[in-house]
Amino acid sequence: MSELLFYQRPTVLNKDIHKSLRFSPVTDFGFTSNVNSVPLLAIEFFESSRDLPVLFSQDQEGNYFPIALLSLKNQGHEQIDEAGVWLGNYTPAFIRRYPFVLSSDKNVCFDADYTGLQETGSEGESLFTDDGTYTDTLAKIIEFVTNFEAEHVRTREFCTAATEQDVFKPFVLQVITADKKPLRLDGLFVIDEKKLMALDDAVVTQWFRQGYLAWAYAHLHSLGALQRLSEKLDTRS
Global pTM? Predict the structure, then answer.
């Protein structure tokens, strides 16, 4: 995953340096406006599938990872309005965790450019108490980013298992835009249902118990949401 996709100035949260920091939750998701997809956790496939297509991409090392497709454009999406309000029914956790993130060495970091984090004024919730302990607000933030990382590990394990069983196949998405121009999205992959159904019984049992089978079919179910994205696509402006 591109962990720091939206983070301009990642900064390690320090109880001594940032003891006066106050946090106001994100209401303007304009920081996502230039992307057409974001990484997705496997546990999110169920909810996302009702609203957003779940596909797979590859990182620079060739490892597969799931994405939520926000738009059929090559850049940008239609999930927010002009004020940055999220219009979709589901907001991926990769977006919801902003401006916080857990670093590779397990430190909580934040984007110092996020305007909802201020050391002056009375707006927002304190992150630390006067004696330097976590407030409920910070405790919930830490729980969220920690759970995110744990599910990220499970997602990688699922993708590794799917790679070992050779169930991925390329998926080239071609649509005609509102101004009658062809648009092609490459570098996408889906799970081949025929290969999924041909898995050995022992693998099927293992995948069922680990939740992988349910995730695979939630992904396949989500492809029906491509039609909803197609209806939103308008490149005439």
Answer: 0.90
Residues 212 and 220 sit within 8 Å (Cβ to Cβ): no
Residue owning tokens 């092609």: 184
> The dihedral of CA 143, 111, 63, 166: what is its sign?
positive
Q: Going by C-beta distance under 8 Å and a sequence separation of 6 or more, which residues neighbour residue 215?
A: 42, 43, 45, 158
Q: What span, in angstroms and rounded, lies between the C-alpha atoms of 81 and 228?
A: 17
- Which residues make Cβ contacts (< 8 Å) with residue 206, sequence separation at least 6? 212
- DSSP β-bridge partners for residue 56: 66, 189
Beta strands per DSSP E along 136-232: 168-170, 173-176, 182-185, 189-191
Task: Give the pair of three-digit tokens for residue 141.
Answer: 């933030």
From 72, 99, 87, select the one nearest 223 (Cα to Cα): 72
Question: Would residue 229 be called left, alpha or beta, if left means φ above 0 and alpha means ψ between -120 and 50 degrees?
Answer: alpha
Spatial separation of the C-alpha atoms in residues 234 and 207, rounded to whole Å: 40
Distance (Å) of CA 114 to CA 15, 88, 119, 216: 18, 22, 12, 36
Q: Name the DSSP letter for residue 29.
A: -
User: What averages of pLDDT result for each successive group of 10 residues across the chain (237 residues)?
Assistant: 81 93 95 95 95 94 96 89 93 97 92 91 88 94 96 97 97 72 83 97 97 97 88 58
Are 36 and 71 in contact, with CB atoms under 8 Å apart? Answer: yes
Cα angle 216-220-221, degrees, rounded to a multiple of 5: 115
Check residue 17 and report its DSSP letter.
T
- In this structure, what DSSP letter does residue 127 have? S
